[in-house]
Amino acid sequence: MVIDVFIQYLFGKDFFGIEYSHHHGKRLSGPFGDELVVGAYLSKIIFIGLMYLNYLKKNHNYFIFYLITLVITVFITQERSAFFISLISSLFFTVFLKTNIKKKVVFIILLPLVLITFFKFDEHSFNKYYKLTILQLGLTDEYHYRSYATESKKTIKHKINNFWDSRYGAHFLTSYKIFLDNKILGSGIKTFRTSCSLKKYDNIDSLYADIRCNTHPHNLYFELLSEGGLLIFIPFCFIILFFLTINIKNLITNNNYTNSLFNLSLLIILFFPIQTTGSFFSTFNGIFYWIGLAVISNNMKLNFFWHSSQKNKDT
């Protein structure tokens, strides 16, 4: 898949003749066709693949090469959230990996150099990762041009004052308002797509209020709050905090260190709160959360029962 994405990036078409999308720059899809999700897909399997690589061959040279290759591949797909979270988790893993300091330096120096090269010679990447990001965060005086939701032929321009005036900001604000109206039980699974259009949410404090609707809020925690209420949100957060606490403790005490490092890196990828995400309850995106939690649980199970199994062997 990585090779297929690079072929599409370099030649405009992948192995299957699928062209990249011109929507918001040069968006790559790889073998997914019209679905612009290849970056999100690769980001979620980075550490699952790395665990398998560790099982096959515990050579940290391969680890560094693998991480650089996957992070760069996610970068060229121009899926910003997938790239930033892949970068953060990969840096975390590299910093805490028990390996030669020279290998860590290679990763920390080589990766930024490659990214800077892309920024300098690829205008699409520069516009998407820098110009569009600061525009959506309200950090530039430039105006944003778009069409009205109800009058697609009419173009308007406005100044984005902060993140809430962006499209994602409107999704988040709407989901929060839905939660306030349904604190305990939420509005129901997969109901954001219908609840968001209710007249009472027309007045959310966002310049994107007119196009606040989508199939989901594009953030895991806002989705659980609005659709599941506190009844689902609190137990979910408790489970994630439990996983975090146990694995951080294991990392500090050097107990099953490698598995704990893999677990924490995967938890960052899947559950870091400040990112845009796919839907937790959809078929494509949701399956990765369950796979990730299954892998983490399995690694923790090995850790939990190692001492008892070792005692049985000794007796």
Rg result: 22 Å
Point out poorly predicted stretches: 302-315
Strand/helix succession: HHHHHHEEHHHHHH
- Number of DSSP helical runs: 12
**CA-to-CA gap between the ends?**
48 Å
Task: Work out the strand percent.
Answer: under 5%
Overall domain count: 2
Widest β-sheet, arrangement of strands: 1-2
- Strand element count: 2
Biggest beta sheet attributes = 2 strands, antiparallel
What structural class do helix, strand and pairing data support?
mainly alpha
Q: Tell me, briefly, the overall form.
A: globular
Mean pLDDT across all amino acids: 86
Helicity range: 55-70%
Task: Explain what this protein looks like in three dimensions.
Strand 1 and strand 2 form a beta hairpin. With about 325 residues, the chain is an all-alpha fold. Helix 1 (about 1-10) packs across helix 3 and helix 7 (about 165-180) packs across helix 9 (about 220-255). The chain has helices at about 1-10, 40-55, 60-75, 80-95, 100-120, 125-135, 165-180, 190-195, 220-255, 255-270, 285-305, 305-315; strands at about 145, 155-160. The protein contains twelve helices and two strands. A two-stranded antiparallel sheet has the order 1-2. The chain folds into two domains: about 1-135, no CATH class; about 165-305, no CATH class.
